[in-house]
Amino acid sequence: MPNMIVCVKQIADPEAPPGSFKVDEAAKQVLPAAGVSQVVSPFDEQAVEAALRIKDAQGGKITVLSLGKNFVMDVIKKPLSMGADEMILLQDPAFEGSDSHTTAYALAMAIKKVGEYDLIFCGRQAADWDAGQVGSGIAEILGIPAITPAKNVELVNGNVKVERVVTDGYEVIEASTPLLIMVSNELGEPRYPKLKGIMAAAKKEVPTWNAQDIGADAAKLGAGGARAKVHKLFIPVKEGKCEIIEGENPEDAAVNLALKLRER
Amino acid sequence: MTLELLGGGRKLADKLGEELSVVLMGVSLGDLGKEAIAFGADKAYIVDDALLKDYQTDAYVAVMEKVVKQVSPSILLFGTTSMGRDLAPRLAFRLDTAVSMDCVELDIDPDSKLLLQTRPVYGGNARAVYICENTRPQMAAVRAKALDPLERDDARKGEVTSIEAGLDPSIIRTKVVDTVKEEVTGIKLEDADIIVTGGRGIGGAEGFQELEPLAKALGAAIGATRPPCDNGWVPASLQVGLTGKIVSPTLYIAVALSGSSQHIAGCSGSKNIVAINKDPEANIFKEARFGVVGDYKKVLPAFTEKVKELLG
Ligand SMILES: Cc1cc2nc3c(=O)[nH]c(=O)nc-3n(C[C@H](O)[C@H](O)[C@H](O)COP(=O)(O)OP(=O)(O)OC[C@H]3O[C@@H](n4cnc5c(N)ncnc54)[C@H](O)[C@@H]3O)c2cc1C
Ligand SMILES: Nc1ncnc2c1ncn2[C@@H]1O[C@H](COP(=O)(O)O)[C@@H](O)[C@H]1O
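Above: inputs. Below: predicted complex with adenosine monophosphate.
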């Protein structure tokens, strides 16, 4: 039965109204917006779903890893309530100021500590910085192949069959384990947690590991180990001058719109 | 995409006073090296090998690692294509350097001479300019249509060099066993000058059929936001947005979609956005040039009739 690991990130709800979004340009940081809740990054929920479908089909164990801070336990435990078996949180001031490299390094070190794995699942990109790299990075560090973005994953006689989304369709790719897969929304909706799952998850102990626990080299962590640097962060200005075409009724407005467009 | 990278790369190379090289990988590449030179390259490196027929991560990363060691570029550019999305991050980790994916703008900082890599973040709500100070090459994957190709100039001189792939087939750990095309009839989204896009408010597959007459009359392609794709009302390949197609038509007619940042990230390059939405507060009216507030079921047929009349 496969041992599976899923990496999930806690982020601010990416579907919050764009108007609520603010940045501190000088500090090059995103400001927390009032009333915007924390969620598991959506593609990561799909990554959990991909692992659960394999578990449904042939059993196995799913361990979830998340690196971050200010974890909201009800939020970050969602993969457990969906049906994952274990969860480990990675939290340490040493991780702060991470880029894709240092995040991938820390996660890879934690995966090595977890030990056995056949399949590792990530999201295609975290819906905050939309970097789309950490999965490839973990795979490179662990020396295993990776496939992105995936819309279907099956385990057939110990071999993995992955449908990879390409511009106008998909490729069917075969690989052996261990393999890392970055999951995309085409996989389909993640399942809703059931009440029983939520209650079990609430009771579940979730250990936290720090940099030392995972045996990480401090020089490769956080801001010090980062290779990419944010030089500037800003909200693009919008012209925002929409002309609302009026009319006696919707049909009439539609006709006026057609006339207006013809003028141009 | 390669032509766009050559055009954009040429500008950067000129600003730095450096050479622009292109790496072409595949099988039976023929005269592509000369082509690349006509479109702006100083040097073309050709890696022609049967093992490079399909894109496979392990093979392409290994070849690029070899080429980078040989050529030592200060900057390495990719397209954010199906291939680039997979190849660029993996190669960056192998070379122990950083890459910025999905860049919309590239420039050279006049003081530091570093590559300024501008990309949308937070679903398009913000833009970040990244730099890579200490490791080389500086890598960026660029979104389609962000860079302009140059005019072809067959008089341009350059040097074409072959590089042996030298691949050991056993390093390739994945195998493409099938490629499934999800053909879309009619005009392709990426090429369309006019696009009619439906959102969740369309309500179903039948609703999308109501967009057809308008699209037909205008010679437009049909697009969709993510929910209609996820719900199976339309094929996934019609998705426009951050994680779908990036389009920049002259006219973009947005019907019954709210204008989420992730959707706008894919169509903000449109010259004119027209919105039809029943909610006057919908964010799409902040993006649009013209808008009609109303139920699309009422607005669309009348609009379509008038358009036909005006064009007919
Ligand atoms: C990381 C990430 C990536 C994403 N990538 C993409 C992407 O690439 N593309 C994409 O589109 N989305 C993407 N999304 C999803 C995105 O956040 C939104 O959920 C999605 O775009 C909303 O689609 P919509 O506007 O059609 O639906 P809604 O937001 O539900 O809007 C429906 C609109 O229709 C209007 N309406 C309803 N009925 C009618 C009617 N009868 N007549 C007129 N108007 C009507 C409503 O007023 C409303 O404004 C992504 C999300 C994340 C987190
Ligand atoms: N801090 C994190 N903790 C756990 N997983 C992460 C973290 N950051 C990124 N990932 C995983 O890597 C994927 C790609 O992230 P990114 O490269 O940051 O866009 C995400 O979808 C997650 O699966």
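The longest strand of chain A covers residues 146-156.
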